[in-house]
Design brief:
The protein is of the alpha/beta class and 315 residues long. It contains ten helices and eight strands. The chain folds into two domains: 203 residues, Rossmann fold, CATH 3.40.50.1820; 97 residues, no CATH class. Helix 1 crosses helix 2 and helix 4 packs antiparallel against helix 6.
Amino acid sequence: MRLLYDPTEPYAVDRLDVGAGHEIHVEQAGNPAGFPVLFLHGGPGSGCNENHRRYFNPAHYRIILFDQRGSNRSTPRGEVRSNTTPLLLQDMESIRKHCGVEQWLLFGGSWGSTLALLYAQAHPRRVRGMILRGIFLARERDLFWFARDGVSRIFPDEWERFLDAMSPDERLDPMTACLKHVLGEDPVLRERFALAWSRWAGQVATWLLPEAPPAEPDIEATVQQACIEMHYAKHRYFLGENQILDNTGAIPRVPVRIIHGRRDLTCTLDAAWALHRKLPDAEFVIVRDGGHLASEPPMVDALVTATDAMLERVE
């Protein structure tokens, strides 16, 4: 089973002014003369960390990572103004030009897979290949599964704990309640609902990992991330209902590998299957024991295998 590559430090760290008060954290690691790959983190609102560089052979890849608007080390953190999907795609282009890259490999998981697909549709000449994990198509049914009626049937105990933050009326439509309060003006309610949402999402995403003692949450960071998540959910990710699948014809004919855990309960396998049906030339890998997180050992194995194999096709 493949493991992550050894830790590597960035050789360049920049802050990119993308307008409207937003500055984007961008870092590069690996081989400056290697094949460029852009890592697209999930969320929206999470961010990159040092382990994200380790999915790529640093001797052969020029590894480019960035924190999306309002996320992690990008500032202002938690800012939802001038923060939309089209602007994130515009930021990716700004990063490409800043780095002097003509074409690159896109590596995205969950919300990162959404951005990779949208970017490939908008800028097909800039994409040399894609590795996509935990496909999220940002449809109404995908949000309904996670936040209304779907995975709640598998985790009824955790769902009930999530609903404990709500009034009887709010329990009838918990997503609307979260949108209202996380994006609202009352700081007490904002914190309560952000923490409840974060705990629910975390329980579903991490269910395959060994149980660990609960860590004390960073309340400020949790609220900031939840604000970004709710902002995008409120606006249905600034996309048409079936926009990604309806526009797969715009994706260039480049090497694509779709990787999805069969036991992923955050983003269900049917989304990856639907994408595969639209991109029949793409390699499709179902990880039998894999869930949603890239850090799970079976997913690490599949992803590192994919990045190594992709080098032979894009260099």
